[in-house]
Amino acid sequence: MDLDFDTKVFDKEYIAVADRQEPIVRGGRHLFDRLPAAFDGVRQLGVIGWGPQGSAQAQNLRDSLGDAVRVVVGLRRNSTSWDTAVQAGFTPEDGTLGEMFDVIRGSDMVILLISDGAMAETYREVFAALRPGTTLGLSHGFLLGHLDLVGDEFPADIDVIAVCPKGMGASVRALYLQGRDVNGAGINASFAVHQDVTGRAVDRALGWSVGLGAPYTFRTTLRSEYLSDLSGERGILAGGLHGIVESLYRRFRDQGMSDEDAFRHSAESVTGPISRVISRDGMLGVYRMLNSDEKQVFAEAYSVSYPVGLELMHEIYDEVRSGDEVRSVVLAGKRLARFPMGKIDQADMWRVGQKVRADRVPDEIPLDPFTAGVFIGVMMAQIDALLEFGHPYSEIANESVIEAVDSLNPYMHARGIAYLVDNCSITARLGARKWAPRFDYALTQRAYPVVDDEQSVDIEIFGGFENHVVHEVLRVCAGMRPSVDIFVE
Amino acid sequence: MDLDFDTKVFDKEYIAVADRQEPIVRGGRHLFDRLPAAFDGVRQLGVIGWGPQGSAQAQNLRDSLGDAVRVVVGLRRNSTSWDTAVQAGFTPEDGTLGEMFDVIRGSDMVILLISDGAMAETYREVFAALRPGTTLGLSHGFLLGHLDLVGDEFPADIDVIAVCPKGMGASVRALYLQGRDVNGAGINASFAVHQDVTGRAVDRALGWSVGLGAPYTFRTTLRSEYLSDLSGERGILAGGLHGIVESLYRRFRDQGMSDEDAFRHSAESVTGPISRVISRDGMLGVYRMLNSDEKQVFAEAYSVSYPVGLELMHEIYDEVRSGDEVRSVVLAGKRLARFPMGKIDQADMWRVGQKVRADRVPDEIPLDPFTAGVFIGVMMAQIDALLEFGHPYSEIANESVIEAVDSLNPYMHARGIAYLVDNCSITARLGARKWAPRFDYALTQRAYPVVDDEQSVDIEIFGGFENHVVHEVLRVCAGMRPSVDIFVE
């Protein structure tokens, strides 16, 4: 796909890695004075929905845009989020909170951040309420996947763009607030221009992304976005992570560790030191800080986990690309009234985790080399699968690594697995519930038994690790933002 | 759906339970002399494929039909099964073994028993090779599901029928052989008539089923069959069973049992005494043989497992009905060359199982009341889901209970989980791999934590058990066949 673009408002640069050049735009608060130009022609910007993304984006955009554009939140009249939106300063009295279809009809640009299930159910009414020439904004490509499935299309007389922060809503807001002190702190985002009837779609998208606080913004397509986004959250970002740490916890206990130590060497190790080192020094950084015995353990764990991860990532990608996963989410949405989503953190492991977090001494969390090998092995499998399927470097690095270590894992580190998974979109929550057990079983049935019989580990698999192109991609991406730790209470 | 039918060759009876009457035909070797009339107009019967069903059905039909109809096996020229078919007495020399398309072209009736994946890939060539007026036989409705997906249809000038044994191929053959000594021993089957251009479709289907040794044959439709068949094998028959025993094994170990005792109280208990009692005295029989403390444990385990099972069965049914599951199987088939299906019995639990089986004292296998409550709770959830979706009683009883206790579980009891799962169709093998971990996680995360906090068990859920209509259905079905134990080496 051709990812180049022209912007009249911002400064385009290129990320050059290996054989590719990918155009991007850096963000920062010093660019906020360009936002009026980017949003030229937009008097009212409607943000529809008050989930994790909706609440974060509405507040960030209001704070960034100031008086230039009126940011109005639209909700269903009986929405349970109405009061929290009021508490955040959006009120019917000053015209910044209203019924969703009223807001849609009155906005020049509409950012639609309702749940995917609600999107599938109400998109026809939403389309009908959009005036010709409106810019419709999405924060991921799910709706396109759904339209493909049902054989429908976007109205021809509107812009369709997307800005997709590569992190959960909570961190989109938290890092934006940190950006007051550290210019450029934020969550990277991709953008897509699917239809451009106004001729202003690119700059509106870039303005939206800069306004959210994205350190840098790269281009993708709606389809490439939802393929990588749904696959990534089913993979290492949520489903894979959950299955990995459950399988490791059990393994360490079976090897004789106490419950608490098993939790420290599995979940704590991933969300603490492993994620922190990856964020700072990449995956290679983790490997390089191990001693030679630990390097051997890492390499073996990597070599048995990578193939299992690769197979599952191919299955996940096939399921997403075929439409199965989108259809599955829509069907699940219809069952939720009768079968509400269950809790995932009631089993013993996560009760142990609560205790471990309460007693935590941060410097004493082990960086377990076996755990690191499994986690990074599955992470690299996801990277290789997305490379094989033709995704741009930036998308791969953000969907497989940066979003994990800079947005999601710190939340799990602070609050546990349910806090990570259940602060994501319903689509991600369902996907994580579906795929976590698959990763767990596959590792337990097919990876760990091989490493326990040392002779049979195919260590050649690890040979691809050290010289992998993704390390350079991560280094370049890391250079795009200041180094800040995510603040999680 | 109207399930009544007319037969000129066999004797129709009605199963009457509660408010319904379902027509059926009893089988038995004393009816083999009617097979020539049932197959009137069929000189050559081609059986295509030599998987578990193909090999069992070809041999049973050859043995039952004698000289009346020539049974010819058709395989791809380079099939690895060629030699085993020869060993079973099908040879190119006497014209009973040939290249599959030659056999299809030369047959008046063609029973297509190749894998579902192969069916999806080659059905166009198969259709092209069928002469007008041929009777095409299937052993389940998968192909209809696939045709629906790709928007294709069966040729209009052929019969399309199905006979679907409610048991794995190995037991279709084993019980047929037992039928020499005990008339009527066999595996029940459903039949469907999807197209009838010859006017002989019903009797050909019934003749086929009687020739396989089915104790009784009930009618369904191709669509109802594949919906219940795919759902059942993903549910209690294979996927659910696997997830249930894994979760229970872990639970019992965590409660302090030795590995061996944990295996005895989980897997051994289900595949041994629980299945045997259900086979003889139904699910009620299990409950009634418990003492009052055990009854309480059973009721609590049932009450927490049933809701989790019901939710998963609704999800499974939605996935099957929407086409997701069929598409998923076709996609998985395409990945198998690169990612062969992995082993499911390498983890510690199944190594323990081998030891336990080797040391087994059959009379000392515990009938664990908690295990029984979980297994029967999920089984009843499957029954209630299939009832809600409108399936006939016979189909529900066979797909949820009889196939489990009379065909599948005895194989697992003899040889372990992989022997059960991996002797099923590829569709079932993939489905079991996909859904077993879901049952495991759902029970571990949401059922067992509730029972561990006694106050919160909603024991009302158990209230529906004792007077459930399915108990009478099972009693009537059990009366259709002699009582024989399945012989498994």
TrEMBL record, chains A, B:
What is its pathway?
Amino-acid biosynthesis; L-isoleucine biosynthesis; L-isoleucine from 2-oxobutanoate: step 2/4; Amino-acid biosynthesis; L-valine biosynthesis; L-valine from pyruvate: step 2/4
Where does the KARI C-terminal knotted domain start and stop, copy by copy? Answer: 221-363
Which residue ranges does the record assign to the KARI N-terminal Rossmann domain? Answer: 25-224
- UniProt signal peptide: none
Drop me one GO molecular function for this one. Answer: isomerase activity
The reply to whether Amino-acid biosynthesis figures as a keyword in the UniProt entry is yes
Cofactor list: Mg(2+)
Q: Does the keyword S-adenosyl-L-methionine apply?
A: no
Where Mg(2+) 2 binds, per the record, is at 229
UniProt keywords, alphabetically:
Amino-acid biosynthesis, Branched-chain amino acid biosynthesis, Isomerase, Magnesium, Metal-binding, Oxidoreductase
| Positions bound to Mg(2+) 1 | 229, 233
Q: Which GO terms describe its biological process?
A: isoleucine biosynthetic process; L-valine biosynthetic process
Family membership: Belongs to the ketol-acid reductoisomerase family.
Q: Which PANTHER family match?
A: KETOL-ACID REDUCTOISOMERASE, MITOCHONDRIAL (PTHR21371:SF1)
Q: What is this protein called?
A: Acetohydroxy-acid isomeroreductase
Higher taxonomy: Bacteria, Bacillati, Actinomycetota, Actinomycetes, Pseudonocardiales
